[in-house]
């Protein structure tokens, strides 16, 4: 994307096209090919077929993917919920070390689901790497659980499973090739397509998108919470994490009228919010009355500005997304994007969230199931192995 191209010194700007590779694996009877679709693409894919910006097309997108021949059609939203379980727990663990035990922890914690931001930090702000959440992005968490938990469940050898992602993002292509993201024993994700490339495949196959009947995602990852939907928007990861952290600490959901943190999803490049913790459960009583201070930044030029001009020590959690408005305007989305279109896509995502019965990641029954059956607990041994990663200092690029 333009934003990535301006700042990303590695492969994120090289938009390698894997359409032929994906057709080849779909034609290979030995391969079991699954696809995951990111939260942001469903509010923009319709634009490639002449629909108004912001028209949600989740059901038609699933139908198109099934027609294309994928063996399993899944939602990266499921692992967005998983990311929140892990990232929210990581934040609470850092807060516990400092506020209850009087020890040291690297705060503020920064989000880690935007690979362009990770590249940028590795090259230009290595002193912040210890502050980055160790959580893999939802794309990479999906690949890791697909080739372990899911492959085992359906009796497919992981070497025969191929994981394709459809992302709004060109930087995700580079991310999937990071050599440390192979904890399943194989590349967690094999090929990444952008929203535009999926539209091209639909057209190549002769499918008439507008005539498709809505279909649902497949089990065992069929449902996600509203919190996962909003990952697509600037401020969404933060808001999703706050919803789950609040529930863990107080035992209560945030009231519906407080679910959206004030102004955190508008198109300002740097935003702040705080939330007072009141009446926590006994285990978290040390947080009674504490203010959780958060910041949301989009566009990497704004990261430089914040780090140059602000004291970030008062914040507990900072979200960074490279693209203006977040993933809804990633470099792989239908062209062209302006603030009017961004606003429509953001609103489409908020409507999805608000229409869901479950709006908190920790209440998604399928998330509870994967922990009960396989992962056991957030930050546990298996979660740590499959869902977390590390970052490396790299030379700045001239
Ligand atoms: Fe990719 Fe989203 Fe980051 Fe843009 S904001 S580079 S689309 S992950």
Automatic annotation (TrEMBL):
One of its GO terms (molecular function) is 2 iron, 2 sulfur cluster binding. Keywords: 2Fe-2S, 4Fe-4S, Iron, Iron-sulfur, Metal-binding, Oxidoreductase, Repeat. Its EC number is 1.12.1.3. Coiled coil: none annotated. GO terms for biological process: ATP synthesis coupled electron transport. GO terms for cellular component: membrane. Its cofactor is [4Fe-4S] cluster. This is NADP-reducing hydrogenase subunit HndC. The chain holds residues 192 to 589 of 589 of the full protein.
């Amino acid at each position: 994307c333009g934003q990535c191209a301006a700042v990303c010194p590695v492969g994120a700007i090289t938009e390698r096209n894997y359409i032929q590779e994906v057709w080849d694996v779909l034609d290979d009877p030995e391969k079991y090919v699954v696809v995951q679709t990111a939260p942001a693409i469903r509010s923009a894919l319709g634009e490639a077929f002449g629909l108004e910006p912001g028209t949600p097309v989740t059901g038609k997108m699933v139908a198109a993917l099934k027609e294309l021949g994928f063996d399993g059609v899944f939602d990266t939203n499921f692992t967005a919920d998983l990311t929140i379980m892990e990232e929210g727990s990581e934040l609470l663990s850092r807060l516990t070390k400092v506020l209850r035990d009087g020890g040291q922890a690297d705060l503020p914690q920064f989000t880690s689901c935007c690979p362009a931001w990770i590249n940028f930090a590795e090259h230009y702000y290595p002193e912040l790497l210890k502050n980055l959440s160790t959580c893999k992005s939802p794309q990479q968490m999906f690949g890791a659980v697909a080739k372990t938990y899911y492959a085992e469940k359906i009796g497919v050898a992981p070497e025969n499973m191929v994981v394709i992602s459809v992302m709004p993002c060109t930087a995700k292509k580079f991310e999937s090739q990071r050599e440390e993201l192979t904890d399943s024993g194989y590349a967690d994700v094999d090929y990444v397509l952008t929203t535009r490339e999926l539209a091209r495949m639909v057209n190549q196959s002769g499918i008439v998108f507008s005539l498709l009947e809505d279909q649902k995602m497949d089990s065992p990852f069929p449902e996600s919470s509203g919190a996962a939907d909003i990952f697509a928007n600037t401020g969404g990861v933060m808001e999703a994490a706050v919803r789950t952290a609040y529930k863990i600490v107080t035992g209560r959901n945030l009231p519906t009228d407080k679910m959206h943190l004030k102004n955190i999803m508008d198109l300002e490049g740097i935003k702040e919010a705080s939330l007072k913790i009141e009446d926590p459960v006994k285990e978290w009583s040390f947080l009674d009355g504490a203010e959780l201070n958060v910041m949301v930044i989009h566009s990497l030029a704004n990261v430089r500005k914040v780090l140059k001009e602000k004291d970030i020590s008062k914040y507990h959690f900072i979200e960074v997304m490279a693209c203006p408005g977040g993933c809804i305007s990633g470099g792989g989305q239908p062209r062209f994007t302006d603030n009017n279109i961004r606003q429509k896509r953001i609103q489409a995502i908020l409507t999805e969230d608000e229409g869901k019965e479950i709006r908190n990641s920790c209440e998604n029954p399928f998330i509870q199931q994967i922990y009960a059956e396989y992962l056991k607990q957030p930050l546990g041994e298996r979660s740590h192995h499959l869902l977390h990663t590390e970052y490396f200092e790299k030379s700045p690029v001239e």
